[in-house]
Amino acid sequence: MTPHTQTVLRMLLGRSADGERQTSAPSEGLYGLELSRLSGLPNGTLFPLLERLRQAGWVERYWEADESAEAEGRPRRRFFRLTPEGAERAPHALAEASAAAPATVRTGVPRPGIAGGRR
Amino acid sequence: MSRGPGKELNRTEPGRRQQPSSRVTTLVAALSVCAALFSALSPQLDTPLDAVLVSTLVAALMVVAVLTGSLVGSLGRQPAAARRQAGVVQAPRTARPVLWLAVRLLPAADRADWLEEQRGYLADLPSPRGRRAWAVRQLAAMPRYALAVRTGRDKESA
């Protein structure tokens, strides 16, 4: 699993990018623009990734209710969220990926005393 | 699909045309550029006839460009402050053809939804520059996205 996929899955699980804090409930969808801003991924990475996760059955997309869009006078938005299957499997997959990755990759910050870190 | 006020994103104002005074200003600016080019080139040209030919050609090209309105999109346009004051949120003209071009790569069945999704994003981006940048980024992203959509579809149908 690529780091980009891990980032997106963490966000859809409602966690911050570093996986430490819970930012929202996993059942809540994320708006595409919000995902783009929070993840910092280029569109050419983010949207194909979401599409592949959707094809794998981990992510679903849905339109917001017409009423709320019309009340605010704007086009309706499309949200992305984890399916029940994705919500069940993603934490395990992330844990496995995290365990398999070297410490420097796992944390994203080199640590003193660890290969690649500053001593 | 019609979304009421969201239509404003694609709305153009039929009554708003480029003012004659701004065209004159643009023309004067173009001629000034011609004069500057002429003065820069003239020492390097061998004969006065060459200089006249080059400057005439440059001037003709600039005038044609100005008259067809294709010189620079911002020249002669209403200032941004005036557009904001008018309170009309418009998708930049350049965003629409860019998205239209991008969506051609998608399967026909997915195009309408993708365009509607993009309309939502454009409506939420605060500045015309941001909307233009988003459209260009989506155009750049489209080959990979279209590949993901099409290969996934092939797998599903297999």
Major protein interface: A-B, 20 and 27 residues
**Helix and strand succession of chain A?**
HEHHEHEHH
* Mean pLDDT rating of chain B: 67
Strand content of chain B: under 5%
Q: How many strands in all of chain A?
A: 3
Q: Helical amount among residues of chain B, as a percent range?
A: 55-70%
Largest sheet of chain B: none
Unreliable residue stretches of chain A: none
Number of helices of chain B: 6
Shape estimate of chain B: elongated
Describe the protein.
Chain A is mainly α and 119 residues long. In chain A, 50% of the residues lie in helices and 10% in strands. Chain A is built from 6 helices and 3 strands; from the N terminus they run αβααβαβαα. Chain A has helices at 3-12, 32-39, 43-55, 66-72, 84-100, 103-107; strands at residues 30-31, 59-63, 78-82. Chain A has a 3-stranded antiparallel β-sheet. The longest helix of chain A has 17 residues, at 84-100. Chain B is mainly alpha-helical. Chain B has helices at 20-41, 48-67, 80-86, 95-103, 108-124, 128-157. In chain B, helix 1 (20-41) packs antiparallel against helix 2. Chain B is elongated, with a radius of gyration of 22 Å. Residues 1-20, 69-81 and 83-89 of chain B have low confidence and may be disordered. The A-B interface holds A 32-33, 42-45, 47-48, 51-52, 54-55, 69-70, 73-78 and B 3-6, 9, 113, 116-117, 119-121, 123-125, 137-138, 140-141, 143-145, 147-149, 152, 155-156.
